[in-house]
Amino acid sequence: MSLPEDEERLLPLAQRWPRASKFLLSGCAATVAELATFPLDLTKTRLQMQGEAALARLGDSARESAPYRGMVRTALGIVQEEGFLKLWQGVTPAIYRHIVYSGGRMVTYEHLREVVFGKSEDKHYPLWKSVIGGMMAGVVGQFLANPTDLVKVQMQMEGKRKLEGKPLRFRGVHHAFAKILSEGGIRGLWAGWVPNIQRAALVNMGDLTTYDTVKHYLVLNTPLEDNIMTHGLSSLCSGLVASILGTPADVIKSRIMNQPRDKQGRGLLYKSSTDCLIQAVQGEGFMSLYKGFLPSWLRMEDTLLHKDCDL
């Protein structure tokens, strides 16, 4: 039953436009979280690129000259060699990406939950519907955000290129979008989208299944109540599972996005995500697919603590 127009105008904005308000709140929360945890994301990307075997085909000596560093040494190395503020290099497209991804995922998930799947007669929303809806929503959100993810990854590697004596690719965020668009067209902005949406689907699957399962187990089988402690423990477990499932696709995605390209925007190192996977395992070993795992997990914990606000 709809309210009269005069009464509707007196309602708070959050009640008049609930989805728009939730989108804005989600975007604000995503921005704050992105700024706070971005150094972990930058460190993760740098670790994922270390020891890239495919560079040897181009005669790039960076793979042999750069010693392997762990998370802490990589972060300290960035501060010492490039400057403290370089820990936030690429944060602007990262904020764009987080807003687009979180908003797109939230709107899609709510649409699927309310219109496509619907709740059962007892008003309960089954776990399997939550998992499928979360995976589909994550895929849609990640696909929409792929251009911003592409620019973010490439800008995160600009400091490393400068240290290696290579020319910088971009003057700023908007120049990066314009250059990629001019060289590769619209299609170029979606480079790496296949492993990107694979990662999103795997992360959302691991997150939702583990989070709900652990939370229900703790509430039903331990003295813990449905409070911040329960949510924190559930997020810790779900973040671990999501990182285990999603890190290999994340490594492949980052390498495809950062690879050098010809004048037509075609990659010079990898023909596809499968080719990138094979080259990484053959040239660096299976565990190369888990480079950057620790900062990825730590960063995901902060993100998953806000899951009840987003979904």
From TrEMBL:
GO terms for cellular component: mitochondrial inner membrane. It is found in: Mitochondrion inner membrane. Keywords: Membrane, Mitochondrion, Mitochondrion inner membrane, Repeat, Transmembrane, Transmembrane helix, Transport. The keyword Repeat applies. InterPro entries: MCP_dom_sf, MCP_transmembrane, Mito_Metabolite_Transporter. The keyword Cell division does not apply. Coiled coil: none annotated. Solcar repeats lie at residues 21-115, 125-217, 226-311. Its main location: mitochondrion. It catalyses: H(+)(in) = H(+)(out); chloride(in) = chloride(out). It is a multi-pass membrane protein. Homotetramer. Belongs to the mitochondrial carrier (TC 2.A.29) family. PANTHER family: MITOCHONDRIAL DICARBOXYLATE CARRIER-RELATED. Facilitates proton transport across the inner mitochondrial membrane and may dissipate excessive proton gradient associated with oxidative and metabolic stress at neuronal synapses. Regulates glutamate-induced proton conductance in astrocytes, shifting the energy metabolism toward aerobic glycolysis and lactate transfer to neurons for ATP synthesis. Can transport chloride ions with lower efficiency. The transport mechanism remains to be elucidated. This is Mitochondrial uncoupling protein 4. It comes from Mustela putorius furo.
